[in-house]
Each structure stands twice: as structure tokens, then as C-alpha cells.
Amino acid sequence: MKRLIPLMLLAMFSVGALSACNTTKGMGQDVQKVGEKVEEAADNTGGTRPN
Fold first, then answer.
1. What angle do CA 31, 47, 43 make, to 5 degrees?
2. What is the pLDDT of residues 8-46, one digit of tens each?
3. Strand spans (E) along the chain
4. d(CA 28, CA 33)
């Protein structure tokens, strides 16, 4: 019984950590896509262009 409780806690923590990684990765991809769209829009304005 003493060994079961820490193993259960470890399993619960691991599942939570792994699901958070997927969420963070997805959010990072969304932010990256928004950044790309903003960059494209800035390029299409015809303003100053980098050398």
C-alpha cells in the first residue's frame, strides 16, 4: 500500500504533464502561424523593405 500511493501520484502527474506538452505545442504552432500572417501582411503593404 505504501508503494501504491506514490506510483499512483506519479502516474497522474505524468499524464498531466504529457497532455500539457501537447497543448503548449499546439498553441506555439498557432502563434507561429499568426506571426507568419502578420509578416506577410507587412510585406504586402509596400512599405520599407529590408536590405
1. 35
2. 888 888 887 777 667 777 778 888 988 898 888 888 887
3. none
4. 9
Cell of 4: 501504491
Backbone phi and psi for residue 46, each to the nearest 5 degrees, phi listed first: 80, 15
Euclidean distance between the first and the last CA atom of the chain, given in angstroms as a whole number: 68
Could you say which DSSP state residue 1 is in?
-
The Cα 45–Cα 10 span in angstroms is 53
CA atoms within 13 A on the CB side of 32: 6
Kindly report the pTM of this predicted structure: 0.48
φ, ψ of residue 50 to 5 degrees: the values are -70, 150
